[in-house]
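In the current project phase, the collection of sequences with tokenised folds has grown. A representative record is quoted in full directly below:
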Amino acid sequence: MANAIIADDSRSVRAMLRMVLGELGFTVVAEVENGKDAVAEVERQDVDLILLDINMPVMTGDNAIDPILNANPEVVIIIMTSVSERNIVEKCLNLGASNFIVKDNNWNHIRSTIQETWELNNVD
């Protein structure tokens, strides 16, 4: 069973993502509202996957990628964004995120993107 963190400042988005991750067999070990708390959780516990919003208070998702990967270079990061600006997405991918999901996609697309990204990054 893989451990996941959800980092998003919207409670309703976190609830939906928790449901989707549960359906995919992940154990959600933490839900946080900002990038700083996401970094702290990755440093504190064993995490395999993180769903990371870009626009959050305290520390944005793009600013959290480096410290997250420094704490756990193996973690799979999927950026969740309502921002579809190519330069922001490219920045996150260049920093080490494995994929991104635009939040206005339907939940089936979000679920399949998470599953496909996880499978691509966990080939033994």
Summary: Helices lie at 11-23, 35-44, 61-71, 86-95, 107-120. The first strand starts at residue 3 and ends at 7. The chain has five helices and five strands.
